[in-house]
Amino acid sequence: MLRSSPTIAAINSRPWKEWLGRPYSIAFRLAWRNITRDQVRLVIAVVGVAFAVLLMTLQMGLLIGFATTSSSLIDRAKADLWIAPRGAKDVDQAGQIPERQKFLALGTQGVTSVESLIVRFAVWKRPDGGAESVIIVGIDPSAGVLQPWNFVAGTPATIGLPEIVIDKLYSRKLGVTQIGQTVEIMGRRARVVGFTSGIRTFTQSPYVFTSLSTARTLSGVPDEWTTYFLVRAERGANLSRIRTALQLALPSTDVWTSKGFSWQTRVYWLLTTGAGSALLLAAVLGLVVGLVIVSQTLYSATVERQEEYATIRAMGASDRYLKSIILQQALVSGALGYILGTAAALVIAWIAQGGSAALLLSYQLILALGVVTLTMCVAASLLSIRKVLSVDAASVFR
User: Fold this and answer.
1) Dihedral, CA of residue 83, residue 85, residue 89 and residue 90, to nearest 10
2) Are both 94 and 152 inside the same structural domain?
3) Residue 357 has what DSSP assignment?
4) Is 103 found in the same domain as 59?
5) Beta strands in 100-246 (DSSP E)
6) Whole domain around residue 345: which residue ranges?
7) CA–CA distance from 172 to each of 126, 151, 167, 169, 249 (Å)?
8) CA distances from 345 to 10, 288, 358 (A)
9) Same domain, 120 and 237
């Protein structure tokens, strides 16, 4: 009988006043025995919380991953300011600006260098005759303002004329099997001289890195035009003042700070496009559904033990003591579920590294969802406490 009712046995084993002298340690022991006595109920509660945590983590990880991917060119560039064609909303889609305006930018006080950057969509012809959309990124490899990163074969120095670098993630999609392979872009030939790893794009049109001259040839951009100017300022210079001066010197363009253009690109893709809006909605729904599952699971697990709490109240426990037990039960169940769900999410993120979907699980996100999960555990326990305290303690003797 004592083995089947550990809560009552624990209470009867010592004088009640002695229990009240150590309320927090005893309350935790009671909470732990309550949730571990019925292992099936414990598994259901922990799995429910784990599934909710997994859902929230994956959805938020996808949202952050795609947002980061959409602005990766900007974030990787060693530029303080971006001079873009008027009305450019994101880094992948923009008009053109005259190359001669580079000299106006160079003449601005506080500017140390200005480099051209070409970003244009193009058509890639696969070996089997199919076609894929790609984004040509024309850079000056010797300048070092923007270069391909995460090389697994080749180096920036290998980029010449007419040579290109693509990411391994898209090699099968583009029909590329090896270094040195000759491909066709916009009816012109180029040779693959390098592979990178993990450079994704939000549009799923792969980036094709090449030199400025090759980019002009492949994309059809004339020598006297470019897409962006990447500006580097003197160390410690006032970027706001330089930006204002550049805007006055080049009134037909938009001048952005790197951080500002990065956020503009993320907002554009996530809030003003169908794909981004769907992803954002899915992340919000995943968060809401996960919170509901956590709350409902822990609320049900607590309410199902009403008779046990009624017994403790009948033996003289205060409402505050009962609240402590219920709260600790919810936190323990929530913590176990959070650990299990987070571990599963990390495994899935590791498996997804080789896929085109960007799943980014930063430690900030994991910690934030841990706080959210435990907060919902507390909220669920507060709701269930009202239900438990409404039970008549005398009902246990009926």
Assistant:
1) -60
2) yes
3) S
4) no
5) 111-125, 131-139, 151-153, 163-167, 182-185, 188-196, 207-211, 225-226, 228-233
6) 6-68+275-397
7) 10, 17, 10, 8, 46
8) 38, 18, 13
9) yes
Give yes or no: residues 195 and 139 share one domain. yes
Please report how many Cα atoms fall inside a 13 Å half-sphere around the Cα of residue 379, on the Cβ side. Answer: 13
Q: Which residue has 């994991």 as its token pair? A: 366
In a domain, 260, yes or no: no
Peptide bond into 148 cis (omega under 30): no
Kindly state the tokens that stand for 7: 């809560």
Q: Where are the alpha helices (DSSP H) in 253-357?
A: 258-271, 274-303, 306-314, 319-351
Q: Which token pair is 41?
A: 């109920």
Cα 176–Cα 180–Cα 181 angle in degrees, nearest 5:
40
d(Cα 180, Cα 195) in Å, to the nearest integer? Answer: 11
Which among 83, 382, 23 is positioned nearest to 232, based on CA atoms?
Answer: 83
Give me the residue label for tokens 């997994």.
Answer: 54
Q: Please list the pLDDT of the chain residue by residue as tens digits (398 residues).
A: 334 444 444 444 444 444 444 445 666 676 666 666 667 777 877 888 888 888 888 888 888 888 888 899 999 999 999 999 998 889 998 899 999 999 999 989 999 999 999 999 999 999 888 999 999 999 988 888 898 998 888 777 777 778 899 999 899 999 998 988 999 999 899 999 999 988 888 888 999 999 999 999 998 899 899 999 999 999 888 999 999 999 999 999 999 999 999 999 998 888 877 666 777 777 777 777 777 776 677 667 666 666 666 666 666 666 677 777 777 777 887 888 889 989 998 998 888 777 667 777 888 888 988 888 888 777 777 776 666 666 555 554 55
The tokens describing 22, both together, are 């150590």
Quickly tell me which residue has 């160079």 as its tokens. 106
Measured distance CA(53)–CA(337) in Å, rounded? 7
Sign of CA dihedral 148, 149, 154, 158: positive
Structure tokens at 313: 């109240």
Report which secondary-structure segment, H or E, holds 396: none
Tell me the C-alpha to C-alpha distance, in Å, between residue 117 and each of 94, 97, 137, 224, 242.
Answer: 12, 11, 7, 13, 20
Is the four-CA dihedral 364, 365, 366, 367 of positive or negative sign? Answer: positive
CB 355 within 8 A of CB 58: no
